């Protein structure tokens, strides 16, 4: 009897992994922390098998700890009796609500068996959506950029939670970066938008990311060399 933390991917139901799909279809109950993950899970499970958990959007640590503990108290007995899934967009171990639940279960219900099923993350799928190639040997840093933050330093960055794109853009341009944005990439919920114009993203949206690359960065990607009349 196991609790499975299942990554659903960025939001399109057909980007759920085969393993994730199989476990969802056989789970006795599937817990969802929000409406977006719930809508993806419903592609594979009946609505009466979905259980909701309350994870308040607050920075009040006491309220958060109380919510995590209450959620663990709901999930733990079910996971002792049968197979239970907790679904989350993206990957369960990458900036995910599941991490709070896992740590709380380990602290108060350590007998519960846990297994994590990785999911496609928008922070890797961005390269396909934005037409970016990160070649072998290149460095890429992951940064949070909520509320207009403009992290700088690395030659290449993927920024997530870009909730104030115009402010973030201003700081990055001043620091010498070229920037491209993607909103709701590979998501069925809402309109996907890809742009290098931050004014198109004036409306705040948690599911916005950016790729920033230094303007003076010299990239020499290896290629196969060919000669006319044959190849080497």
UniProtKB/TrEMBL annotation:
Domain Tetrapyrrole methylase: 2-141
A Pfam family assignment: TP_methylase
Lineage: Archaea, Methanobacteriati, Methanobacteriota, Stenosarchaea group, Halobacteria
Family label: Belongs to the precorrin methyltransferase family.
Top-level EC class: transferase
The keyword Methyltransferase is assigned to this record: yes
Organism this protein belongs to: Natrialba chahannaoensis JCM 10990
Name of protein: Cobalt-precorrin-2 C(20)-methyltransferase
PANTHER family per UniProt: COBALT-PRECORRIN-2 C(20)-METHYLTRANSFERASE
GO MF entry, a single one: precorrin-2 C20-methyltransferase activity
Record pathway: Cofactor biosynthesis; adenosylcobalamin biosynthesis
Enzyme Commission code: 2.1.1.151
Keywords for the protein's UniProt record, in alphabetical order: Cobalamin biosynthesis, Methyltransferase, Transferase
BP GO terms, sorted: cobalamin biosynthetic process; methylation
Domain of life per record: Archaea
